[in-house]
Amino acid sequence: MRTLETLSGGEWVAGTTGEWIDVLDPSDVRAPVARVPALTPKDVTRAYDHAERGFAVWKRTSPFERARVLTEAARLIRARAGEIAADITAENGKTLTEARGETLKAADFLDYYAGLARQGYGTLLHDARPHTRTHTQREPIGVILVISPWNDPLITPARKLTPLLATGNAAVFKPATETPLAGLHFARALHEAGLPASVLNVVTGRTAEIEEALLDDPRIAGITFTGSNAVGNRIRRRLADRNVRFQGELGGKNASVVLRDADLAFAARTVAAASFGQAGQRCTATSRVIVEQPVYDEFVGLLVAEVGALKIGPGRDPATTLCPVSSRKQRDSVLADLVRAVEQGATVLTGGGADTEGERVHGCYVRPTVLAGITPEMAIWREEVFGPVLALRAVAGFDAAVEAVNDSGFGLAAAVFTRDLGNAYRFADEAECGQVAVNSTTTGWDVHLPFGGFRDSGTAYKEQGDEVLRFSTRVKTVAIDFGTPERTRG
Question: Quick check: is 364 catalytic?
Fold first, then answer.
């Protein structure tokens, strides 16, 4: 078993106690694949000490040097894509194809924000005063705490860390306890690319043991978090009386609508990919499908056939198309949701329950499940499951479909399948979601596209694209009176 250290103050350290956290493979939890330091509150405070010093250096560093570091880190990640993808698969369970895609997309984030770092952030404004030029400029806000989830252990840190580093901030980064290896790969690439010591500090540890030190340090200027609504709301309440920015990407209950004029075979393939990729463990995964009544039976038959063709297995097997969920805890949570759905009246069309065949008994496998007989009151229709579970409903027409999409506390992503351009635009206007797709998946939003949800799915600060600058920078207005020629000469 490998023993990995974490990055703090520009050095790779094991913490002060010598305690470690085992990282388990969801496909077979019997033997740990690695271990990382279990840091203490004192270690966390030391990370903030380092970040404070790092910020003083990095905010004055040329944007062109920042861009050079990010570009070199992207090159290193691409060069190590095979090694990194293998570690993502080992700690998270997703297939090697999915893990490699995540790795290359993380490098894309570095390249994109390297380009953005070279641009000026500001605007030239008219001024009513004579001989005056006024402009705005954007500046880094300071030390930002980054808390990332276990489901996308590399791409989420890349999405969060890269823009804040590009704009001159420093970071304390807490990867998920279950999946720290990918985040350490990302930190190592930045470190070896020449990121100055102390700008990025990685805190590995059990959240319950270090939460107070992590969240309450007075030097925090912003927190960016991806995870559950329960944790996100707890952080938000903790920040209520502090001048700390909070960017939250929280839960989702994403819906795809299949209208009667859709290409049904294409819709079934696309919905299956959006629902069961990464075993449904994407914040943008489709978990609800709303189908116009005249094509409901035909679509369901096509969808069940697509799901039945999925091959369950470990992510390292090239033949696998449905990986395990990330942990026993997550498996048990999904299974409990399925039991409750059946108790409330849902019908299992395919799947249901754990998969414990052969060696899979040692893993965290859930059969891909499609549920029918769903009513809007059922928990399976309203609450996030975060697993390979899809709930179906039939509706009378377009208006009823939009109403069903919007009948949710969440508002992250939605899709519609139709050949009618009018319905496509109407859906884009009326769906109460931050991301809307037409004839495509609810997943897969590229690095330059602003990303984030409405309502309980997130906060007002978006991620990705240049929209993220609203979170990672502050705006300063500067007016310069350059005087008349006579005054200047005098």
Answer: no
